[in-house]
Specification:
Length: 566
C-alpha cells in the first residue's frame, strides 16, 4: 500500500459559528479560531476541516452560500482568513475548506439572475421545470421530497416554473449538466488553492448528477405525496465523469486532500471513487453506521436501538471493502450528527470511560480519523426545554411539519429532537467553567449546554486522566506505530454482543484491539487462532493489573485496551 500524508493525518472539524467568539457578538469567528491554534497543535491533529465561512444568508448554518470567494462578516474578513491559514501552516497544520457546490444560496447572484426570466443567461445554472402537464393535486414537476421536509420543488411566481432544491428552499440545486457551471466552480476552487488551501471536504458531492428526465420516485410512503428520490439523484449517471473532470482541471495540479461527503454510497462505489490510481477523490464519508439507530427505510427521526453486531458488520464491510482498493474516512460525529458519547456510549456515569473507548475504536480502525469539535472532551447532547431554543432549519421544519401540520404531540417531537437533532452538535464549544463556557462574552447565538461547568477543556487540561489527554495519546500512537495507519483489519468474535475486538497487522507488527461496548462487565476470551509470544499494552482507559493474561480478560464497563503482540 502506498504511503500518503492524508492517510497518516488526523483531521479536526471546526464548526466556526460554535467554536470561539473573539469579538463578543455571540458568534464564533476566524479570530476566535486563531486564539485556539495552540490548543489544536497540542492536541496533535494535523489537518483542520473548516465548515463554511463564506458569505451566506445562514438559512442552513452557512451551507447556503451567496459568495464563494468572500467571508461572512460575522466570521471576519479575508485578511483574517489569511492570518488563520498562516497560523495553521506555521504549526504544521493543513486546512481543508468546505466545498458546497451541489447547491448555492437563493441569494447567490447566479440564482438572483436565474430567477429573473426564462431567457436569462443564468437560467440554466439551476434546475427549472414546469408543473406536471396533467392537472394534479400536487403539480410539482416530480414527487421527490427534500431532505429538510416537504417537496424538493419550489414554485417561483414570476416565471411560473419550479426550481429543484434537495435541501432547504433557500438552497437551489446547481445544474451540473451545464458546462459553464462546472467551469465556474473549477475556477473558484483554483482560486482557493492558489491561496494555499490544502484540500476540500465536498458537501453531498455524489448528488451532483441527476438522472435525466428527473423521474418520479416509487412510492415508499403511501401517507405522503412526496417520496424518497435518492435512486435518481445519488451516485447519478455522470458523477464519475464530473469528478474526473474536476480532478483533471483542478485537483491534479496540487498536492491536495479530498474527502467527499457521499450519502447512499456503497463500498463498491466508494472503492471506485477513492481508488488511488484511477479514483477522483482520496476518501469519502459513508453513512451506513449513522443509519443503525433508525428504523430501516424510515427517516433518521424514527429511532430504533442500535446493535453492536450490526455496527461490527457495517464497519467490517467498509474496512474490508476498501482494503487495498480505496481509503476510509473514520468518523462518529460531525455538525449534522448527535454527540458520539450520547449516541454510542453513555453520557451519564460512564461518560469518560465510554468516550475514551469510542475514541479508541475510531482511531484504531484503518482510515483517516476525524474528530468533531468537543468530541475530544466528551461533549454530550443537549435537551433545551422549548423549540424556541433551537436554531437548525431541519429541526425547525420537522417541528412545524409534525406539530403544526399533523398535530403530533409536541413532547414526542421534542424527544426526537433530543435524540437526533443537529443542534446537539452545534452548542458552543465548552472551553471553561466561566459564563457562556468561555465561548463568548455575550449571549451566544444558541445556548450553551448547561453541563459546561463539569465538561470543559480547562478541566480536561488539568486532569491527567481526562478524555482530552487520552485523545492526545491516541494521536501520538498513530505517529509512532505505522500499523495503526496501514495495518489490515480482521474482526474477531464477530457474534459477541458486548465486545468489539479486532486485529491490525502490518508485516510482523500486530495490534489487538479489545473494546467493551457495554455498561456491564464482559468476559473477553482470546480465540486460539491468535498466536503470539509476548503482549504489551499500549493504551487502556482503566488501570490494568500487571499480572493479567490476555487469554481471558474481565473487561470493566466500556473498557478499551490495545495490545501490541509479538
Ligand atoms: C451536508 C452538510 O453537512 C449539512 O450540514 C447540510 O445541511 C447539507 N449537506 C446541505 O448542504
Amino acid at each position: 500500500m502506498n504511503k500518503a500524508w492524508w492517510k497518516e493525518s488526523v483531521v479536526y472539524q471546526i464548526y466556526p459559528r460554535s467554536f470561539c467568539d473573539s469579538n463578543g457578538d455571540g458568534i464564533g469567528d476566524l479570530r476566535g479560531i486563531i486564539q485556539k491554534l495552540d490548543y489544536l497543535k497540542e492536541l496533535g491533529i494535523n489537518v483542520v476541516w473548516l465548515s463554511p465561512v463564506y458569505k451566506t444568508p445562514n438559512d442552513d448554518g452557512g451551507y447556503d452560500i451567496s459568495d464563494y470567494q468572500d467571508i461572512q462578516d460575522e466570521f471576519g474578513t479575508l485578511a483574517d482568513w489569511e492570518a488563520l491559514i498562516a497560523g495553521l501552516h506555521q504549526r504544521g497544520i493543513r486546512l481543508l475548506m468546505d466545498l458546497v457546490v451541489n447547491h448555492t444560496s437563493d441569494e447567490h447572484p447566479w440564482f438572483v439572475e436565474s430567477r429573473k426570466s426564462k431567457d436569462n443567461p443564468y437560467r440554466d445554472y439551476y434546475i427549472w421545470r414546469p408543473a406536471k402537464p396533467e392537472p394534479a393535486a400536487h403539480p410539482e414537476p416530480n414527487n421527490w421530497f427534500s431532505f429538510f421536509g416537504g417537496s424538493a420543488w419550489q414554485y417561483d411566481e414570476p416565471s411560473g416554473e419550479y426550481y429543484l432544491h434537495l435541501f432547504s428552499r433557500k438552497q437551489p440545486d446547481l445544474n451540473w449538466e451545464n458546462p459553464q457551471v462546472r467551469a465556474e466552480i473549477y475556477k473558484m476552487m483554483d482560486w482557493w488553492l492558489q491561496k494555499g488551501v490544502d484540500g476540500f471536504r465536498m458537501d453531498v458531492i455524489n448528488l451532483i448528477s441527476k438522472t435525466p428526465g428527473l423521474p418520479d420516485a416509487p412510492t415508499s410512503n403511501p401517507d405522503s405525496p412526496y417520496q424518497w428520490g435518492g435512486m435518481y439523484f445519488a451516485n447519478g449517471p455522470r458523477l464519475f465523469e464530473f469528478l474526473h473532470e474536476m480532478k483533471e482541471k483542478v485537483l491534479s495540479k496540487y498536492d491536495v486532500f479530498t474527502v467527499g461527503e457521499t450519502p447512499m454510497v456503497t463500498p463498491q462505489i466508494a472503492a471506485d471513487l477513492t481508488n488511488e490510481q484511477t479514483g477522483p477523490l482520496n476518501m469519502v464519508f459513508q453513512f451506513e453506521h449513522m443509519g443503525l439507530d433508525s428504523a430501516p427505510g424510515a427517516s433518521k427521526w424514527e429511532y430504533k436501538p442500535w446493535k453492536l453486531v450490526d455496527l461490527k458488520q457495517v464497519m467490517t464491510r467498509w474496512q474490508k471493502g476498501l482494503e487495498d482498493r480505496g481509503w476510509n474516512s473514520l468518523y462518529l460525529s460531525n455538525h449534522d450528527q448527535p454527540r458520539t458519547v450520547s449516541r454510542f456510549g453513555d453520557d451519564g456515569p460512564y461518560r469518560v470511560e465510554s468516550a475514551k473507548m469510542l475514541a479508541t475504536f475510531l482511531h484504531m480502525l484503518q482510515g483517516t480519523p476525524y474528530i468533531y469539535q468537543g468530541e475530544e472532551i466528551g461533549m454530550t447532547n443537549v435537551r433545551f426545554d422549548t423549540i424556541e431554543d433551537y436554531r437548525d432549519v431541519e429541526t425547525l421544519n420537522l417541528y412545524r411539519e409534525l406539530v403544526y401540520d399533523h398535530q403530533a404531540d409536541p413532547a414526542e417531537v421534542m424527544e426526537k429532537i433530543y435524540r437526533k437533532g443537529r443542534d446537539n452538535a452545534r452548542t458552543p464549544m465548552q472551553w471553561d467553567a466561566s459564563p457562556q463556557a468561555g465561548f463568548s462574552s455575550h449571549l451566544p447565538w444558541i445556548k450553551v449546554n448547561p453541563n459546561y461547568p463539569t465538561i470543559n477543556v480547562r478541566r480536561d487540561q488539568v486532569q491527567p486522566d481526562s478524555i482530552l489527554h487520552y485523545y492526545q495519546k491516541l494521536i501520538e500512537l498513530r505517529k509512532k506505530y505505522p500499523v495503526i495507519v496501514y495495518g489490515t483489519y480482521e474482526l474477531i468474535l464477530a457474534d459477541h454482543e458486548q465486545i468489539y475486538a479486532f486485529t491490525r497487522t502490518l508485516d510482523a507488527e500486530c495490534l489487538l484491539v479489545i473494546l467493551n461496548f457495554n455498561q456491564e462487565p464482559s468476559l473477553f476470551q482470546l480465540p486460539e487462532t491468535i498466536s503470539f509470544a509476548t503482549s504489551e499494552l499500549i493504551i487502556d482507559n482503566y488501570e490494568v493489573p500487571m499480572e493479567e493474561t490476555i487469554k481471558k480478560i474481565h473487561l470493566k464497563p466500556y473498557e478499551a485496551r490495545v495490545y501490541q503482540l509479538r
